UniProtKB/TrEMBL annotation:
Catalytic residues as annotated in Swiss-Prot or TrEMBL: 332 (proton donor/acceptor), 350 (nucleophile)
PROSITE patterns, A to Z: LD_TPASE
Name used for this protein in its record: L,D-TPase catalytic domain-containing protein
SUPFAM superfamilies given in the database record: L,D-transpeptidase catalytic domain-like (SSF141523)
Keyword Acyltransferase recorded: yes
Organism: Pseudonocardia saturnea
Length: 401
């Protein structure tokens, strides 16, 4: 009896499963079998997802005044944009619409102390047209502004030792220096290994220099850029202008100046093209020694007034003067030391030449030409002025502050 009951129950289950299977496979039907089939068929299906509404975003958003530098953009999640414009107090801002029409990005920098408003049309995929929200935002109006100045003019031709110096007329905080560093770039037509380095702050403010590992290759085209405009430099103020300068590295010209030879030589492209009798600084007086180390030609003047009250002269005119450091070292004409030129060192630190030789040398050299002084007892150091870059070993130069 138990065996029969179990067999009967098993048969009933088989019939039920067969009925459900038949209901699942059926295209049409009714009754409980169809209901069970629908429930079984939908048991593993994903639930319907809620539809995400389309939207448009604009950056910056309304709120506190923002920096003029930063992303300025309108973007749609669906559809496309038409006639987008961003207009400030001084007129429209130039921008570009993406190829798919879904975003517009400003290509002009914003102005300080201005209010901007969006306008245009958002066209949805179904053809619905909606005006772009007139979200207004404003830019900061700084109390203090600051400008970075580059030492090389646009289009200049400079010597192979020319350092690139970007200076600011205020001391920058470490955070401000880091912000500036992120904006710096140097592009060269010839591969050049080089690096930026922040120099010690002084009374004139802060400055960051760039130099190659070795002298610049002659003929190299160089472009220096610093995207500074609108950068918040903390207590120093807001940067007001970008830097974008291009220049060319000229002839490979090196001035060889050995204090022991009592001469200087000019070497162009590896060949000596000039040699002059000279008198260097008096070696017995540490204050008058011409410093050993790589100087660079900084500036030239047909006449300078030299003063050293400790040695008894004030505003003494000297001619055909080529400055090679900020400590008072020049290569210039000095008829008073003609007797010593070529055989003795008697100057107050300058390199003295005859008037004829000084005039010829003056015409030959250019900003950035290296002047390699050797043989003296005192080295060129940071105390001696602006461009001592080449006296710093490369490992130290690239080691950071």
């Amino acid at each position: 009896m138990h065996r029969r009951s179990l067999a009967t129950l098993t048969a009933a289950l088989v019939v039920l499963v067969a009925s459900v299977a038949g209901a699942t496979a059926a295209v049409a039907g009714g009754g409980i079998g169809e209901t069970i089939a629908r429930n079984l068929a939908g048991a593993g299906a994903e639930p319907p997802q809620p539809q995400v509404p389309a939207f448009v975003t604009t950056v910056p958003r309304p709120g506190p005044p923002v920096a003029p530098r930063g992303q300025v953009r309108a973007a749609a999640s669906a559809g496309h944009l038409e006639g987008v414009a961003l207009t400030g107090d001084d007129g429209p801002v130039t921008g570009v619409l993406a190829p798919d029409g879904r975003s517009w990005t400003a290509t002009d920098p914003l102005e300080f102390g201005s209010t901007y408003r969006w306008s245009g049309t958002w066209v949805l995929d179904d053809g619905t047209r909606r005006p772009l929200a007139e979200d207004a935002f404003s830019t900061v109006d700084p109390d203090t502004e600051i400008e970075g100045r580059l030492n090389i003019r646009d289009g200049a031709e400079v010597g192979i030792g020319a350092p690139v110096a970007l200076s600011f007329p205020a001391d920058l905080s470490d955070e401000a220096k880091q912000a500036v560093s992120k904006t710096l770039s140097v592009e060269t037509s010839t591969p050049v290994e080089g690096a930026w380095k922040w120099m010690p702050d002084d009374a004139d403010g802060s400055r960051v220099h760039y130099r190659p590992k070795e002298y610049w290759p002659a003929g190299t085209q160089v472009r220096v850029r610093a995207a500074l405009r609108g950068l918040d430099l903390g207590d120093a103020g807001w940067a007001t202008a970008d830097v974008d300068r291009s220049f060319t590295i000229g002839t490979s010209r090196i001035v060889k100046a050995d204090t022991r030879s009592h001469q200087i030589a000019v070497v162009e492209n590896g060949r000596e093209v000039a040699r002059y009798d000279a008198s260097y600084g008096l070696e017995s007086d540490p204050n008058r020694v011409t410093r050993s180390g790589v100087h660079v030609v900084m500036a030239k003047s047909e006449k300078v007034l030299m003063t050293n009250e400790a040695y008894g002269y004030v505003d003494q005119p000297q001619y055909w003067a080529v400055r090679i450091s900020n400590n008072g070292e020049f290569i210039h004409a000095n008829p008073a030391s003609t007797y010593a030129q070529g055989n003795r060192n008697v100057s107050h630190g300058c390199i003295n030449l005859s008037t004829a030789d000084a005039k010829e040398f003056f015409a030959m050299v250019a900003f950035g030409d290296p002047v390699e002084v050797t043989g003296s007892s005192e080295p060129l150091t940071p105390r001696d002025g602006l461009y001592y870059d080449w006296t710093v070993p490369w490992e130290e130069w690239t080691a950071g502050p």
